[in-house]
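Sequence design from tokenized structure. All designs in this work follow the same two-part layout: the structure record, then the generated sequence. An example of the structure record is given first.
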């Protein structure tokens, strides 16, 4: 009975604030728009930073990564620290606050194909991936979904 009351209270608190946190406890305080992350990263390999943006895609196998719009038609892949948590698969279009660090990385063709498969892409779309991708990525220790 105590467990039921706890989860009801947790659900009520989540509904009242309109947000859910995955991973470590965090706040939205100090978050910068995702659209400014590219300019903040100029000349840097990595940067500890909180960002806020719109989710454009989520791993459809288990919610183990998501994509965030960083402006100018670009997306940033977000993975979760130590693979310690997942997010719901149906949160595309929602606003998110991420707490962690951004970094530049090269993603292999094999990994890009794996991500495409996780995203539910067709075999033809997956086979079109033939070049590695240099991109901005993010490792989140906390994800707040609004």
């Amino acid at each position: 009975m105590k467990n039921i009351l706890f989860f009801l209270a947790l659900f009520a608190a989540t509904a009242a604030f309109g947000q859910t946190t995955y991973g470590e406890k965090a706040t939205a305080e100090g978050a910068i728009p995702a659209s400014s992350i590219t300019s903040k990263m100029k000349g840097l390999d990595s940067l500890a930073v909180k960002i806020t943006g719109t989710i454009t895609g989520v791993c459809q196998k288990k919610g183990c990564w998501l994509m965030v719009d960083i402006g100018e038609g670009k997306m940033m892949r977000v993975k979760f620290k130590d693979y310690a948590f997942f997010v719901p698969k149906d949160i595309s279009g929602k606003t998110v606050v991420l707490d962690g660090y951004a970094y530049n990385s090269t993603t292999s063709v094999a990994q890009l194909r794996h991500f495409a498969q996780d995203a539910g892409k067709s075999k033809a779309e997956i086979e079109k991936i033939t070049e590695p991708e240099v991109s901005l990525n993010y490792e989140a220790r906390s994800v707040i979904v609004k």
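The first strand starts at residue 20 and ends at 23. We note this feature because it recurs in several other targets discussed in the main text.
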